[in-house]
Amino acid sequence: MSLAQAPRQELPGPHGPGIFFWWTLRFAQFCAKLLAVKREQFFSGLRRWCRKNGRSFRVDSVAGKGSHVMVYVDERTTIVKAGELSPVYIGIVLKQLGIPKDAI
């Protein structure tokens, strides 16, 4: 079948079949904002976990660049950005610090 003979597909309009995709995308963005955690909330949970498990915890804002901070848990170190942290980002940070994901 040549390109000229191929059936032409309509692009979804604002009220056509694409509305479901648009709604799904908006809903996913809304859910991501609900699950996002502010950096200070994350630090308080991390601080509480470290205190409970006898680990040292320190935040150094001088070592980070811009709005980023260095976080130290025992001998492990990572950089945490400012603002809202997604669940995926929190999992990455916890893995770098050697803390189980379900700890916080």
Describe the structure.
With 104 residues, the chain is of the alpha+beta class. It has a domain at 36-103. It has helices spanning 18-35, 39-53, 87-97, and strands spanning 37-38, 57-60, 69-73, 76-80, 84-85. The longest helix has 18 residues, at 18-35. It is globular, with a radius of gyration of 22 Å. The N and C termini lie far apart (57 Å). The relative contact order is 0.13.
Overall form = globular
Query: Looking across the biggest beta sheet, what order are the strands in?
Result: 2-3-4
Q: Give the termini separation.
A: 57 Å
* Average of pLDDT: 78
Q: Give a short account of the largest sheet.
A: 3 strands, antiparallel
Order of helices and strands: HEHEEEEH
How many helical stretches?
A: 3
Overall structural class, as computed from helix and strand content, comes to: alpha+beta
Q: Extract low-pLDDT stretches.
A: none
How big is the Rg? Answer: 22 Å
* Strand residues, percent: 15-25%
The level of helicity is 40-55%
| Total strands | 5
Annotation keywords:
three-stranded antiparallel beta sheet; 5 strands; 17% strand; single chain; 104 residues; two-stranded antiparallel ribbon
Summarize the structure.
With 104 residues, the protein is an alpha+beta fold. It has helices spanning 18-35, 39-53, 87-97, and strands at residues 37-38, 57-60, 69-73, 76-80, 84-85. The strands form two sheets. The chain has a three-stranded antiparallel sheet, covered by helices on one side.
Chain-wise SSE layout:
Blueprint: H1 18-35, E1 37-38, H2 39-53, E2 57-60, E3 69-73, E4 76-80, E5 84-85, H3 87-97
Antiparallel strand pairs: 1-5, 2-3, 3-4
